[in-house]
Specification:
The chain is an alpha/beta fold. The protein has 10 helices and 8 strands.
Length: 293
């Protein structure tokens, strides 16, 4: 309408009459409240707190906070705000193969397969830090995140012994062929514990994908964002990150549940056989119910 007025040098009344447009439409201003303003503000706050998150994880955090919003709306606002949208990388076909790879020995339940690998960083004075994450491949829980200047095979045994006391022994442990993992101390102790080892093919890190994925996220979300002044500080912050990973970080392969939420969802009622002469207090006659945690 403004273009017609300027081009033909006519009044608004004349232009509206010729174009069949009601004059009231030219002065209309939307009175709809800005429903998205608070949502965008909160999205921005979460984006600043978790700059490595895409819109899907931001959406999941919003839902947890009580926002009634679907993923498409978050995606639209994310694009309108001009924030980075990470595209899904193209999948690559690897040629490496091994009988101990995760594709052939996939975890089927909690405690079936654990995996571990080392990650390295430095304190502010330039001295080395060595980190040992230990994962449950089925639930994606980080069971331990040890930090020290040096971690030997004996140290690995001590950590595993503690985890076995807390979580029980897994059936398998997957790792690369690092000297600590193939050491006599570790292999003998695992054999005595009844835990079988899955050593991947040398030079084939993609055969241990859960550890590799976790270590990559650990680098992006933690190590590259912290300056450690001492081993003690690194230990404290690493434990805080481990708790955050298990309790607060949505995991896409778990349907955007956290590892702890996914592990909790595994509890299922199990029907126990009736014992002769035993009184029944269960909901259905002839069955007793036990809930596994």
């Amino acid at each position: 309408m403004r273009h017609v007025q300027r081009t033909l040098d006519v009044s608004e009344r004349r232009a509206c009459r010729v174009l069949g447009q009601a004059r009231s439409t030219q002065r209309y201003e939307s009175k709809r409240p800005d429903l998205d303003r608070l949502l965008v503000k909160r999205m921005e706050e979460l984006g600043r707190k978790y700059p490595w998150y895409g819109y899907r994880r931001i959406w999941k955090l919003l839902v947890r906070e009580g926002w009634r919003v679907n993923r498409k709306r978050v995606h639209r606002l994310w694009k309108e705000a001009g924030w980075q949208i990470r595209t899904k990388p193209k999948k690559k076909r690897r040629l490496g193969s091994s009988e101990n790879a995760s594709t052939l020995h996939r975890a089927q339940h909690r405690g079936h397969v654990w995996s571990y690998d080392f990650v390295f960083d430095r304190t502010e004075d330039g001295r080395q830090l060595k980190l040992l994450p230990i994962l449950d491949e089925y639930t994606r829980e980080c069971l331990a995140l040890e930090v020290d200047r040096s971690i030997t095979g004996e140290d690995v045994v001590d950590t595993l012994a503690y985890l076995f006391e807390v979580h029980g022994e897994p059936e398998f442990i997957r790792s690369d062929n690092g000297p600590e993992f193939v050491s006599e101390a570790v292999r003998s102790w695992l054999k005595a514990s009844g835990v079988r080892t899955l050593f991947i093919e040398p030079g084939s890190p993609w055969e241990n994908p859960y550890s590799e994925s976790f270590n990559s996220r650990l680098r992006d979300e933690f190590l590259d964002r912290e300056i450690f002044t001492s081993v003690t500080e690194a230990e404290i912050l690493a434990e805080q990150h481990r708790v955050y990973h298990n309790l607060d970080r949505p995991h896409s392969s778990l349907g955007y549940l956290t590892p702890a939420e996914f592990a909790t969802s595994l509890a299922e009622p199990v029907l126990l056989p009736r014992v002769a002469g035993e009184a029944l207090d269960s909901p259905e006659e002839g069955e007793a119910v036990l809930t596994l945690s």
